Amino acid sequence: MKTYKMVKSAFPDFIELIKTKGKLFGPVKQKSKYSFEEISDVKDLDFDYQRTVLGVKKFLTPPKYKTLTFNKEGTKDIIDEPETNIVIGVHPCDIHAVKILDRLFLGNIKDPYYASRRENLTIIGHSCLPDDKCLCQSTGTDMVEDGFDLFLTELDDYYLVWVGSDKGLALTIAASDLLSEDISDETIREYVRWQQKRSSMFKTVMPSFKYMADIITLNYDSEIWEQFGEKCLSCGTCSLVCPTCNCFNVDDKILMNAEEGFRERMLDSCTLPYYSMVAGDHDFRPDRTTRLKLYYTHKLKEYIGRWGQPGCVGCGRCVTYCPVDINVLTVSEALFGEVCETKEVCE
Amino acid sequence: MIDGKESKIENTYKSHPVEIIGIKNLTSDTRYFKVRCMTDEVKDQFIYKPGQFVLFSIPGLGEAPFSISSPPTRRDFIEFGIRKVGTFTEALFKLKEGDTFEMRGPYGNGFDMKSLQGRDLIIIAGGLGAVPLRSALLYAEDRREEFNQVFFLNGARSPDDMLFRDDFTAMAARGILDTSLSVDEDPTGEWPYEVGFVTALIPKLVEKINSEKTTALICGPPVMYKFVIQELLKLNVPKDQILMTLERRMKCGQGHCGHCAIGARYTCLDGPIFTYYDVQHIKELI
CB 3.0-4.6 Å disulfide test: which of A59, A124, B102, B166 passes with B57? Predict the structure, then answer.
């Protein structure tokens, strides 16, 4: 991987250059929350943030989009040639989330809607400092080596610019006037000091996360699931904000003229009622407990069996947004606590 | 595109038109549909295994999965047995011969009939379970020489509730497969075959089969599995040779929409055929 330096004063020019390559999105503060929005001026960008409401899935598997239109003449598939989008300011956890989505949607069977959006998305990562809801150190997703096109590590006076793909390399060639290859010993020392500072800032740890899959297996029949099920509102917020939650529903809509309509794909959540209902109204998961259990066992255990890695990247969105405090942290702690109590393995 | 690379992305959701070439009522709420692919190209590419399914598409109503009921040994048509249970099937029941709709697939693992060559087969259907198993049954009839003994045990609530009754009585008459057709109740008193639960027919096979070389193919209502499995285990049929086909909600058929997840498996990719061994190791399967 090639690495460059870019002095901060060159950053506005870098943004102007990037904007000529596609539609640029980046973190923008909106009241108290952040979201990836289209950037017209470099001043709109605010990199001093922990998490946007939605991750990069906003661009790859949007909350709602049309896949087919139909009228009396017939049907027409819509696989857009999407615009070339560039998203800047993506944190390591969210890049890991994209890698997880890639594994699902670009495996043996490629999802055409995801594939076309993914191909047309350039990801420029940005370094971050954690708050008390960031769990990425525990989930092992605080560092990222690939999955991005460029990654910017912000040090005092300059950025380190890491190249992660051919697309990224092409950008650095275009921006060669703004970049230098002068990586000195002092640069390396400064980088290491910054990483040490960042590592020491993580306040919330989940020491049990490494073996959470086993703990979930051991606790499969635990009453804890029912306690969480009692509290759960089945609102689906956890799935909406989770950067790796990708389940979708498909629905046909007919326009008021009753002559044309469209097929629409929208984000779904396994915590919502009727998620597992089949024809004849047989519901395989009729209660909140079994649905919540599906959410957490699938994310924290079954993903490992299928793709070698859990489906949680420690972004802290569920910790921030669940209205009743059911999140990766509280569920992991409760399950771990259960093992501690019943098996007397902890102090 | 930044790097100027062009790509051609295949639309894996592309449906193909099929024409209905036959319709008949199977029971009061279940109907047989026979369709044909409208181009030779689609027909030639539509290669399936018994136990696989397709997704029908009706614009305005959406898509829904249906098991294929015809055997892959017969190439000019595809058959289905469909129960009217909701808005989608209601619309389907309004279609007539000559009408067209769209379909994509096949999906799912299906029964690997080649791997069953030389084995004794016990094919056990309950109610609507006869739909996917009919594909395996007709396959076994068409390629009878590939298998050792083949037993077909079919259960229905009553003679009127029995799906493919004409087909199956003809099958019993042909005698190519050792066929037992049972009904739970026979209010008419005129049912010429067995009366009682289909599970009661299983112990009768104890002297006939070679357990180690036997594979059971089961499909029926969820409640049936438990009892059928108990009886098959008494016959010492190996746990990984008890194959059952399961139903789950599905929106994509490609392992992406998430609805059919059971443990780390997706019913649309890793199923709908699972073994009893899987059931013992995957929570929530049955």
Answer: B102
Flag whether pLDDT at B78 surpasses 70.
yes
Q: Where are the domains of chain B?
A: 16-107, 113-245
Q: Could B59 and A252 be called an inter-chain contact, meaning their C-beta atoms sit closer than 8 Å? A: yes
Interface of chain B against chain A, CB under 8 Å? 1-3, 5, 7, 9-15, 57, 59-64, 83, 85-86, 88-89, 102, 222, 247-249, 251-252, 254-259, 261, 263-264, 283-284
* A237 touches A63 (CB < 8 A): no
Mutate to test the interface with A, among B256, B257, B265, B285 (most CBs of A within 10 A): B256
Give the start-to-end residue ranges of the domains of chain A. Answer: 3-62+80-200, 207-245+269-343
Q: Is A109 on the interface with B (CB under 8 A)?
A: yes
Determine the Cα–Cα distance for residues B183 and B198; give it in Å rounded to an integer.
8
In this complex, is the C-beta atom of A65 within 8 Å of any C-beta atom belonging to chain B?
Answer: no
Dihedral pair phi/psi, residue A292, rounded to 5°:
-65, -35
Q: CATH number of the domain at B113-245, out of 3.40.50.150, 3.40.50.80, 3.55.40.20, 3.30.420.40? A: 3.40.50.80
Best of B6, B8, B9, B250 to disrupt the A interface (most A CBs within 10 Å) is B9
Q: What is the mean pLDDT of chain A?
A: 93
Chain B interface includes A23 (CB < 8 A): no
Q: How many CB atoms lie within 10 A of CB A199?
A: 12
CA distances for B14 relative to A48, B48, B56, B77, B272, angstroms: 44, 17, 11, 20, 22
Hey, are the CB atoms on A280 and B11 less than 8 Å from each other?
A: no
**What mean pLDDT is predicted for residues A105-114?**
94
Alpha-carbon dihedral of residues A169, A28, A239, A251, nearest 10 degrees?
-90
Task: Nearest chain A residue to B11 by CA: give it.
Answer: A112
Position B186 scores a pLDDT of 93
Nearest by Cα to B161 from B39, B29, B18, B16: B29
DSSP code of B273? Answer: E
Give me the CATH topology for the region B16-107.
Answer: Elongation Factor Tu (Ef-tu); domain 3 (2.40.30)
